[in-house]
Every structure is written in C-alpha cells, then in structure tokens.
Here is the input.
Amino acid sequence: NAEVFDGHGVSSVSIDMREFGGNLTDLNRVGDVWAGQVEIPLGMSPGEHLLKVRMVDTFDSSITVQRTITSGQYHIESTMDEDLEIMVMNEPPVIDIGELRIIEIGDEEVDYVLTISVNDHDGLNWVKVKLGILAPPGQSSTWFTMTSNGDGTYSKEISIKTYIALGTHELLVKAMDAYGSQSAEEPLPIMLKEPDAKITTGSTSDTLTYVAIGGLAILAIAGATIYVMRGSDEEGGLGGFGDA
Here is the structure.
C-alpha cells in the first residue's frame, strides 16, 4: 500500500511491472491509502528490485517514482527518502520422483535408464543422483550429473550388476536452479527382483486328444478281458453258455 498526496488530487496509482514482462497494475483507494495485490512476473529474478510507482493527478499529469518523497515535492530530495524495494524470494526446484521402479534381474547385468521430472521457473543449473549400492565400485557416495532430455526430464543410465542383493534400494536425487537455490535430497527407491517364472502349458485341444486316446486304450483293454473270460472254459467253446 502507499500514501500519495497531490495538491490537485490523485486520480490513480499503479505499480509498473512491464520492465520484467508483467503488467501495469492499478491500486485501489481505501481512505487515504492506495492498496492492492500485484502479481510478480516470472521474468523478475530473485533478489532485491526497485519498484516503479506511477501516479496520475486529476489533471492527467503523471510521474513515476522509485523512492519516497517526504518533502512533498518530487524535485526536492530529502535524507529521509527511501528506495521503494521489493524482495523476490527464490524457491528451490521441485522434483517429481514418480512411482516405485521395479527392475527384474537374472543371470546377466541390466542396463537401466533412470528418468525423473524436475521443474523450476528460473531454469536449472544441474540435477544429480547418488546411486548408493547401484554405483560402480568405490563410487557409492558420488553425485552423478543427470542429462537433460529437453522436456523437463533428466536421465542417468546405470548398470545393475548381478551380485547386487535383491530387494529395495534407496537412491538420492537433488537439483539446483540458475540462481543457486538447491532442493533437499529426495529419496528414490528402486526394487530389484527375480524375473517372473515362465510356465509352458499345452493347448486345450492337445489335452482333449490325450484324454480321448486314454479312453480308447481303456476300452480296448476291457474288450480283451471280456473275450478271454468268455472263451476260457474249453477249447473252442463258449464257456458257461455251452454248446446247444
């Protein structure tokens, strides 16, 4: 908010952000004070900036100032005058880890491309990952720089050796923006598991064929048994049914 005085009356007061790609935003008069909300444009870098205040009187005369005017006349400076400053805070990069990554590893090592999303309005200086147990020997504490894919994602190719224990292992990622603001170290879990077992089964038609063949074999054996029983009493006879 601002207190603005003019002998002819004040018509409007606005904040000029056009230098940074923003807008000329009018303030609202509330009693003797001009107040309002001003959107900070993305083009305004973090740090201290001088604020431009544009004032227009009732005769449409205007002036833009960047300091207070305690004397009441803009052309007369005073030691009491102060710069109209604004401090733009810098937020750290935002890292999107994504879902749990599950990697199958068997008798051969696996080459895997790790990819994450990182966003920052100011642009990124770097994105790094600490691979821990998945790193090459002697480099478990090394921070490796990830490569930008040009679409807000960053990648690092890693080789997962067969001697690494199965289970969940935690990696760490962090990022720094163009103005030196650094994110916290974000945990990134990766699960290593054995490949799923492949079960080979015959088709339904093959199974039905085997059942049919088995049924014919049973019938053949049963028929042979009946024939032997009926012709076993006397040579050439018909057993219990006898000769008529």
